[in-house]
Amino acid sequence: MTAGVATTAGPKAYLSRRYRLSASHRLHSEAYSAEENRAVYGKCNNPHGHGHNYAVEVTLGGPVHAETGMVCDLGDLDAFAQTNLLERFDKMNLNTLDEFREVVPTTENFTAEVYRIFQGFTGAKVVRVRIEETGNNSFEIGEEFERG
Amino acid sequence: MILLTRKAEFSSAHYYWNEAWTEDENRRVFGRCANKNGHGHNYTLEVTVAGEVDPVSGFVVDLKELKEILEREVVSVYDHRHLNLEVAEFAAGTGMVPTTENIAIAIWERLEGKIPHAKLHRVRVYERSDLFADYYGER
What we know:
The structure holds two protein chains of two kinds. Chain A is an alpha+beta fold.
């Protein structure tokens, strides 16, 4: 994990970190007629879009390294999130991004995309991503934890 | 099976330091957390237990009793204490750095087997609202 330091694996724990980002989207499918889009997506189909303050919760699972007491280096995780999450999606219109050219930027699809992106983090295994779209809605994707 | 969660809070000081490493290594790995004068957090503890609902009481566990166990086993030991200097499991020589992960593991060890009529399911420790660790007893 941490560069230049030998580590020994200990008990398995899960570490979760929350990031906040604000983005706009419009829910609209080319597969539907204008009327069907309004029927399916309601006010989320407003042609000019709308936005949310998303809270993205990333969970890493793995052994706690005996020397550091950590599952992974938080600085490495934050740096990865800064480059691959915040700089890509914060203050953006999700519909304009390549990731959502073929799929509707619902928070389900956004969560799946963020989970896919975090599989590229090498510091520890990302086992779950949960995104709160508002205080009332949240979406999560990940492995079923092996609970002892 | 029902899962039941009880919260508790404690405020503690700590710092991160591995005695086997040089000062430079400690500073490189732990950054600001290696300041030996310590710093502190308001921790939130969530303890989840699993059990069957008693047909007479309608309880999985008596919440008042669970609150007392958390107070006795954890809060009275950790609250307004310096974890490195005043709590046995993180003392010099143990090699246990008081990270959020290790605090969750230590609290599991303190509580396991002490909660009547229910099985300890999860210990979650929030260091801040944007950072928390979960431990399910997986060794």
